[in-house]
Every structure is written in C-alpha cells, then in structure tokens.
Design a protein that fits this description.
With about 400 residues, the chain is of the alpha/beta class. It is built from 16 helices and 13 strands.
C-alpha cells in the first residue's frame, strides 16, 4: 500500500488499459467463445452439388434448420429461390467459373474436401467423386444420401452411372437411399443403409370442393411427355364437353420443351383452358396449390423413373388434392381409390383416367385423402429419421 501510494502520480490510466485491453469481454467472445460456439453450432455440414433450393429435401431441411447447419452447394447461376427470411450465413457457395462441366466438378470436389476439414459430421448428397471424402477423412462421420439413380437416356451410359454410384457408396459406412426399390436396383447393402423418403415442402391442407375441376402439374418438362396430358385433355373435352374443367395450370422450368408445349396448346385451341407458368419459388407455389383440386403426376413408365418416389404426388395428397398419376412402381404405392386414379403413360389412358376421376370427383374427401399420406409430412420425416435414427441434431428449433 505504501509503495503504490508513493508512486500514484506516475500511473497513467491509458497505459493501464493498454496492458489488459486484450481481455475485454467483446474481444474474448470474438476470439475464443464465438469461434467455439460457431464450430459447435455448425458441427454438421450438408454438401449438395445442386444449387440451394433446387433439391427439395435439402431446401426443406435448411428452411427449418438454417440456424443449426452449414450447407456447401453449387452456385449454378440459376434463379435465386431462397426466401428472404432465410438465415443465409450458413451457406457456402461454390460458383461456376466456366462452362466446362469437368472443371466445375473438380472445383466442387476440391471445395468439398477443403471445407469438410472444419466439421465432424458431413451429410453428402451423391455427386461424382464424393467417395474421396471418406477416403481422406476416415475418422469423420460422413453419411451418403442417394436421392436418385441416373436418369440419362442412353442405356449404356445410364448403367455405367448407376454402377459408379454403387461403387462409390461402398466407401461410406452410412448410406441413405430414397426408396427400397432404388436400393435394390443399386444393390446397396441393407446392413449399412436406411430408407428416408422424400421430404416434401410445407403444404397447406384445404378442404376442397370438386364442382369445377382445376388441374395442376408442377415439375420439369424434361423427358416427361407432358404434351400427352394436354392432348388427352383435348380429347376429353371433345368427347365430354369442357364445362366441368375450368383450367389446367402447368408450372414448369422454362426450357426448349416449354416453347414446344406452348405451340401445342395453341394448335389444339386450348389457350383458354391450359396455362403455362414459368417455374416459381416454393413459397409462391402455395398459391397454385390453394387454387387446384386435381393434381397431375405424369411420369413416363420405364426403368429410369420407376424407382423414383414422386415428390409432387405426395405434396398434392398432403394438400387434400386427388391425383391422376401414371402407374410407376412408386406412384402405385401412393395412389389408390381413396385419393386418385392411376393410368398408363399414353394419351388414351390419360383421357380415360380423366373421365374416371371426374366422374367420381364428388366422392372424394380431402380429409380422407390427407389421411392416406399424413405420415409423409416433412416434420415427421425429419424428426423420425434425421433426429431419432441418424441423431444428427437434438431437435427441430
């Protein structure tokens, strides 16, 4: 006390502060606690080669858990469909720098490896070369998710692509597959795999009226032969009149097939019945679901799509909308007499299916339709599989 009092006038408050300023609470938080918390919060990395929003399952997961996870994805210069209220701080964009697909793929593989170093658990949606991750990081928990087999039209190349998926999956200790039929097709071991179905968008259930039919198709036009549904509709109107059908809205990607379909609609004189809508973000899609009371799930019946669970069939049914759908293996598991009608992938069969579903439209009950599919609501799937079975996170925030 004598010593400090005797030299009290030599003290300088700024010099005193300088000796300890590194211990200010903000600086400690910034340098020590925040990085630790950030790493803990983002201990789970999702990797998807698709631009965020264009893979339904990941879009729904990120929408619900954007504060809990980090997503590494491609930026393919497509339309941004992420809603404004999303927390985008957890998105790592890998931008396409040129049109060379091989170079872009190599760049994505490199970025995946680079960022995976920071995480303990990595959830990978299949892309060519993803097997490098478990090879480079054998001690990390890395889960492979296969949402689709190859959909290439060339049979030889398609078979090779499916074989590559199978070979790459061998390097992962945990594998998720979208359907049992796809798992059997790819011959993936049941011991190290789990089936997690499609995670649909948040769909508002509405008790529908069926006096006037308002048809809705949502999806791609690529290799889908959607013009068959338009021709089938024309045939139905010619045979039965058009009073019952108010409109048919097709929400789709704007590619070459879009313009061909536009021409076909004019050729058939259906401009007052059939309306094309360029693809819209999921949050805007709700309005189209609200206005519809008959869903169209038209998928070619072949080995390419037979094992693919149809997202929109599930979403139509969750909304209380009956479905006319082609009899693919997976559609046949979902559509029954209570919720719709199955048809073949031809014009005539679609017309007959339309006749059948319109003739019994007043027998449909939206609540009964919903009951047939309610177990596929996204919250239930995420909670059951991602939290309870895979134990990726504690709970949905």
């Amino acid at each position: 006390l004598k010593k400090i009092i005797s030299k009290r006038n030599k003290f300088n408050s700024y010099e005193i502060y300088e000796t300890i300023k590194h211990q200010e609470n903000n600086k400690i938080m910034e340098k020590i606690f925040l990085p630790f918390l950030f790493k803990s919060k983002n201990n789970l990395l999702f990797i998807s080669k698709a631009q965020l929003g264009y893979l339904t399952d990941l879009y729904v997961i990120f929408k619900k858990l954007s504060n809990e996870i980090t997503v590494l994805c491609n930026n393919e210069n497509k339309k941004n469909i992420i809603e404004n209220d999303f927390n985008t701080s957890g998105i790592i964009d890998v931008k396409h720098k040129n049109r060379n697909k091989i170079l872009n793929n190599l760049r994505f593989i490199y970025q995946s490896i680079k960022h995976s170093r920071e995480f303990n658990t990595i959830y990978v949606y299949y892309f060519y070369g993803c097997s490098l991750l478990p090879i480079i990081f054998p001690r990390k928990r890395i889960i492979l998710d296969i949402r689709s087999g190859s959909v290439l039209r060339n049979k030889v190349i398609r078979k090779f692509a499916d074989l590559l998926i199978k070979i790459e999956s061998v390097f992962f200790r945990e594998v998720v597959v979208i359907s049992d039929s796809l798992r059997e097709k790819l011959k993936i071991s049941k011991k190290r795999s789990v089936i997690i179905p499609i995670i649909p968008h948040d769909i508002e259930f509405i008790d529908r009226k069926f006096d006037k039919i308002k048809m809705l198709y949502v999806g791609t036009l690529l290799n889908r032969n959607i013009e068959n549904t338009v021709i089938g509709l024309k045939k139905y109107i010619e045979e039965n009149g058009g009073d019952t059908i108010e409109k048919y809205t097709i929400v789709c990607d704007k590619r070459e097939e879009y313009y061909r379909l536009e021409v076909k609609i004019k050729e058939l004189g259906l401009e007052e019945k059939v309306f094309l809508q360029e693809w819209v973000p999921p949050d805007k899609l709700r309005e189209y679901f609200k206005a519809a009371n008959l869903g169209v799930s038209y998928i070619p019946i072949n080995e390419i799509y037979d094992v693919q669970p149809p997202t929109k069939t599930i979403e139509y049914l969750l909304a209380g909308i009956p479905v006319i759908g082609t009899a693919t293996l997976e559609n046949s598991k979902l559509i029954n007499d209570k919720n719709g009608v199955l048809c073949r992938d031809t014009v005539d069969s679609f017309t007959e299916g339309l006749k059948k579903i319109i003739s019994k439209r007043n027998k449909f009950n939206s609540y009964e339709i919903y009951e047939t599919i309610k177990h596929q609501e996204n919250n239930k799937i995420i909670d059951l599989f991602y939290f309870r079975k895979l134990k990726l996170l504690e709970k949905i925030k």
